[in-house]
Automatic annotation (TrEMBL), chains A, B:
EC number of the protein: 3.1.3.5
Co-factor(s): Mg(2+); a divalent metal cation
A Gene Ontology molecular function term of the record: metal ion binding
Keywords: Cytoplasm, Hydrolase, Metal-binding, Nucleotide-binding
HAMAP family, per the entry: SurE (MF_00060)
Name of protein: 5'-nucleotidase SurE
Principal place of residence: cytoplasm
Enzymatic class: hydrolase
Organism (species): Sediminibacterium ginsengisoli
Binding residue positions for a divalent metal cation: D18, D19, S49, N105
Length: 263, 263
């Protein structure tokens, strides 16, 4: 009985990101999901790009209620994107939200970037905690990026999920949107993660005292010829959707080791 | 011709961790692999537990040559465990090592912890870069932990890998060692990652000015009844070995979405 009453309640949508609560991308995402449920924002108080699945151990965390455009309930958090999800559930919502959306990230999170991305780690954290989730990223790093196509597709996908189609409690989607005018985007493609990565080279410099220091830099390279990958889809002006899992077991290799290891 | 000459060269073994270069665990791991190849240590200059797959963006990185017990070539790095691997390849070794080992971590990295662990993220980074790798973790958080069983099994596993059995360039193993006396350990089990995780609760406190702050805390819970998991193996006094992959695509869900989505 209690359950059926709950079903009719407005869904709760938790919004977070890794670019920080003041980033235009998170405002675009809130815009996208507005009206589809009760929206609560809990996002880092500063940029947290490249934080991966970091959590804060050995340091305290702060939460601060903040103003957010459109009168949306919002909190900034001193921790990582993953901390934001954990704190939101335990200390703000006091329940699991019905959906967690993360982004819209300023920059691509396709291929191997899913592993480094704070945006996607927040989404994956939600999925681990049995909260269906989606991370959205636009292939444009600039602060003035045009989020109109991202907003449109984010709304479409969230609507679809809230209607209950294919909604698994551990569902986690990595959605990337091409940096193209909306009318040029051909639609959505369900993809696998490409084996494509940055080939790093560190930029070596000397400080005024003569001591060396390094900047991470690199060039993106696609080693994957597949036409079913996120990189291919984006290159061909599709929105890419990769379902993501947190069971990292390599079952193929597991079988091989069971047969071949002499230990 | 050049290739066959290279084969006869001593293998290069890169050693890193997330507890920092002064942790007893990394000394135990260096002890374990000593004599099996040319050993080079590149590890964080401070503890980096829970850093996941974080990389340093927007901040410079430093490398410092340091003394390490047993006259081993060693460098401390101001960045994350993943930064250590990237910097080691580009700026210290100037080549890919033949193997990367990470740990021995002070504390468990079984089940979902593989995702939060800096130790395992360093190993996974190596695998992404086509360097076979193993992360080792001992189920004892204390600084005075007894690493003798860990050292024995780490050496066994590394020897096996260097002999070329099942050596894949993207191989990444997550090895956990029970906190039991060596004679009670029953051997090695190849496992899958358990669905087991910390159920978080934040400890809410007030600072001297009355403002709230939070500490992450939680209780470990195993939701997985399987007898083929790492958690099961460790509970039954086996060393657990989980082969880990960096393709996070959920292929089962991908198929389901391709059939069911109306977008």
């Amino acid at each position: 009985m209690a359950k059926s009453v709950k079903k009719k309640e407005e869904p709760v949508i938790l919004v977070t990101n890794d670019d920080g609560i003041t980033a235009p991308g998170i405002q675009a995402l809130v815009e996208a999901v507005k009206g589809l449920g009760k929206v609560v924002v809990v996002a880092p108080d500063k940029p947290q790009s490249g934080m991966g699945h970091a959590i804060t151990i050995g340091q305290l965390l702060r939460l601060q209620k903040v103003n957010f455009p459109g009168d949306v309930e919002a909190y900034s958090c001193s921790g990582t994107p993953v901390d934001c999800v954990k704190l939101a559930v335990d200390k703000i919502l006091h329940r699991k939200p019905d959906l967690c959306v993360s982004g819209v990230n300023h920059g691509a999170n396709h291929s191997i970037n899913v592993i480094y991305s704070g945006t996607m780690s927040a989404a994956l954290e939600a999925a681990i905690e049995s909260i269906p989730s989606v991370g959205f990223s636009l292939l444009d790093y600039s602060i003035e990026a045009d989020f109109s196509a991202a907003t449109k597709y984010a709304r479409l996908i969230v609507q679809q999920l809230l209607e209950g189609r294919s909604l698994d409690k551990h569902l986690c989607l990595n959605v990337n949107i091409p940096a193209s005018p909306e009318k040029l985007i051909k639609g959505i493609k369900i993809c696998r993660q490409a084996y494509a990565k940055y080939e790093e080279e560190f930029d070596e410099r000397k400080d005024p005292t003569g001591k060396k220091y390094y900047w991470l830099t690199g060039e993106f390279q696609n080693f994957d010829k597949g036409r079913d990958t996120d990189v291919w889809a984006l290159k061909n002006n599709y929105v890419s959707v990769v379902p993501v899992q947190f069971d990292l077991t390599n079952y193929e290799l597991k079988e091989k080791l069971e047969k071949n290891w002499k230990l």
